[in-house]
Input
Amino acid sequence: MTTAIAASLENVGLWIGGQSASGALPAIPVFNPSTGEAIATVANADVQQGIQAVDAAAAALPAWKATAPRDRAEVLRRCFEQMSRRADEIAELISKENGKTLADARSETSYAAEFFRWYSEEAVRAKGQISMSPTGSNRILAQYEPIGVAVLVTPWNFPAAMATRKIAPALAAGCTVVLKPATETPLTAYLIAECCRDAGVPDGVVNVLTTEQSGPVVSAMLHEDRVRALSFTGSTEVGRILLHESADNVLKTSMELGGNAPFLVFEDADLDEAVEGLMIAKMRNGGQACTAANRIYAHRSVADELGHRLAAKMGALVIGAGTDPSTGCGPLINEAAVNKVDNLVAAAVDDGAQILLGAIRPEGEGYFYPPTVLANVPSNSRIVREEIFGPVASIIPFDSETEAIDAANSTALGLSAYIYTRDLRRGLAVADRIESGMIAINQGLLSDPSAPFGGVKQSGLGREGSQDGMLEFMETKYIATKW
Ligand code: NAD
Output
């Protein structure tokens, strides 16, 4: 691997067993969504190379598993330091290949690095349990062991954080990994591999492989006996396919899937705070976040006011290239994403929604869609039922608390939800009734490496971050003993 991927964005190779390797298939171009221009190519692995990456991870496993937790912790701490030292470079690269604003890229970089710090602290705390059997006949020892080689598959919307949210707990647990990042944003993953290498992660413990043949390559890896776990972040649709694939070898799976977050604004909410919260929950990454506020349910008495205040704030954002420091709203990831958002907005307007802001697709280079606010969106419109993944706020008025909760729960997804009310008792009571893995009350941001991140229903299985995230890469061994 070259030492400075970001400086020489050219043919980046696969990273297998501590060696850079060319891909067996024609290289994959990487585009800057702000301009539509190709900025680099990365290697394109075939199935055989996927298996070689598993070989490398399996070869590195015994030594890494046997490394003292304290030593693993110190390696992880140095990964955090490497990422922090190179934060500007990483943020710029994220912004270039993903299009997100520099401010968003910087906050992602710091969030991503924090997973290494958090799991460097957790690596020495994989505590088991000891108890007396209820009959008094023997003791029950339960201890945690690393599960083995893990395959990690990540999306393009948080190219750094989705990788470290998996690599850090896996390494803390004593596992070795093969990471397959999204082909839209592979450069950040290779740069993280470089930070790991420079931090002293042994060869073969972290392998990175890019491919345009995600289906066959990941499937082949999941059918290798030495692979014991899959951690996937991406759409529910692909998650479902990978759950089927994982069934054959009965793999442990962690699934962080799609969201369709409701954002509830009650009549007693502080509207300034609600708008601030929406600017984060809706506009972070230009709306391309699994936790993005997708359905804004506002009490009828405040819905108009909320819409106008939000339109004023969103309308003030400068649209431009992610890498331009003045930009407040960057491009979407590609043209297909712009088409999808445009179609959802057009369908909502056909259904009777009113445009308070935006909704006009700009001409010119790059994959831009303007900040858009829609009021009085009918609750059966597609934009309410599907993940928008763009800078479009849909406001749906409601009349009663029960109506709002029923609407919030009316989808098959349940990743995150937001509640705004000045009455904390009401907020907690509503939170109890919302079917969601994560709920924010009077705040627009949930992500925290020390908190359990994950969804219920078809938003996923398992949790990342917190102590739970490390257990996703461990198995419990029970030993019955008398002494
Ligand atoms: P995606 O499901 O299309 O792709 C995710 C990853 O899976 C990519 O690396 C892709 O190359 C790979 N992939 C695609 N088809 C595959 C196959 N058949 N076999 C193996 N791998 C395959 O998702 P995306 O468009 O990259 O990301 C957006 C989605 O991710 C949204 O639905 C979003 O909500 C979700 N997401 C969820 C979380 C979470 O924590 N729950 C976080 C970020 C994004």
Q: What stands out?
A: The pocket of nicotinamide-adenine-dinucleotide is lined by residues 153-158, 162, 180-183, 214-215, 218, 233-235, 238, 241-242, 256-259, 290, 387, 415, 455, 460 (CB under 6 Å). The chain has two domains: 5-257+459-481, 261-448. The two ends are 53 Å apart (CA to CA).
